[in-house]
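hi!! sorry for the late reply, been swamped w classes. u asked for the two structures so here they r. pasted raw, havent cleaned anything up. first the sequence of the first protein and right below it the tokens
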Amino acid sequence: MRRPTQHTRRPAAPGWTHPYTGLPGIAVFYNDGGHGDGNQPPVPSPADLANRAPQTPATPPGPQPVIDKETGVAMTQDRFNRIMTRQYEKSRNAAYREMAESLGLTFDPETFDLEAFKATLKEGHEARQQVLTDEQRRTEELNKVQQAVQAEKAKAEQERAAIQAERRALAREQALTRLGALDQVDEQGNVTAPNLQDALAMLERDLRDTPDADATALTTAAEALKKRRPELFGAPTAPQTLPPAPSGGPAGGNAPRQPASTKDALQKAARKRAEAMGLRHDNAA
């Protein structure tokens, strides 16, 4: 028989055991963070903060006045305006003096009259414009005359070139006509064979390198053209002959018909062939 297990009564262990026990543990967990000597200043209450006097912010220093280096006096706005006005007057007088000297006038700041000076400038400008207008008018008239002369010269050159072209064409036509190049016309006056026109075109092509050829060169070229194309100068056209046929017959005709071979002719031809090959002799039986 087994002995029963003896159970002892023990307190139940919690899930987390406090590491500090006793008075030291209380001191650790309930420490307010203060000093134990009592020297910490008290915290002011809201009433104390409301009763305190407001603190005024410190006033920043203002801008320092500008000191004139020449006089050592502070530069005020009025002094600055007077200086700028004086400088403006000096610059304007310098400009007026330069303009007056360029026009050959004298300039005195004490007796200077701006309105009179403006009137003088206006009169000078109008005088220059008048002179310029006269020069422009004369220049335009001269240009018109030159353009008219150039137009007349160009027109004369064109007329001269046209006359020369007509003379060349007439000389070439006469040279070809003397050699017999004439257009053939039917009863109604219509050109049926423009021989002269074709000859002129060919002669123009032959003389394209020497358009201003003299009479001798023109005649030589026309004669060479007549030899090359005699049909244009009235020569009858040579009949065209076809080349002979390969068989020796007339061109365009049928080959001659070979006569039919007979038995004797075949034997004779075979005998001659055998004799030529040395297979048969005349004294053979």
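now the second protein. again sequence first, tokens right under
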Amino acid sequence: MKFKLTHTARSVACAATFGIAGLAHANTATTDSDAAQKSSQPNSATLIAKGTSGAMTPFLVDAEGRTLYTLATDEKKAACDDACMKHWDPVVSESRPLGKDILPGLLKAEKNDKGVSQVSYGGLPLYRFDGDKKPGDMNGQGFADVGVMVSVLGTAEHPQEAGEKVEATPELMAAGAKVFASTCAACHGAEGQGAFGTKLEGFDRLANGPALLSTIIHGLNSMPALGGQFNDEQVAAVATYVRNSWGNKFGGVSVEQAKAAR
């Protein structure tokens, strides 16, 4: 099943309430010269790659494995002001950046408002966070309500841990197997191997339960909306089944979560 990745509630709230002026007010210690010097420093890490951590949705990292972010105040353009620059270092490249295990067609290097050739992915300007000291650190996620990690699909989001503490009970699995066989197997394959639909075997994006529920209920691209056909019990059951079959081990989905996704 294909499904859509979404911004977190934090990111959405930030985009609506935390403007550039507010960000500048939050930290006024940085001078114009400090920001200009930092943004103009050359950066040799023109390789953008896929990072993974447990059951999180795969996200972007640089050549050293450091997590990359976009800013909730950025809407398809680099708008990080001088105070912002104290914590956020734009990823720059004088030539076309390279991609590894991502979608290289989403990569660009364009001049930002300060004349620096900044790398973007899917239109989202990319940054490093100065609080991340080593590969695997994700301290910029949610920092000052503006830092947002970027998925390999080019969406700003909060990667979610799998399972959400809902058990994949035998009853849920059996009910889900029945729904899957009658409705989903024709496209996704009886063993999740993929056919007309996405291969679900070993599909790490199933870790994002809310996004999976949204796609089952509301549809996405060639995936039809099944919310009118399935009740909440059936949605929870089939979501639990695909999240815990064919090598996937992402935990269960409750009826309450399915109902909340409508």
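hope this helps!! also noticed smth abt the second:
Confidence is low (pLDDT under 50) at residues 1-43, 159-164.
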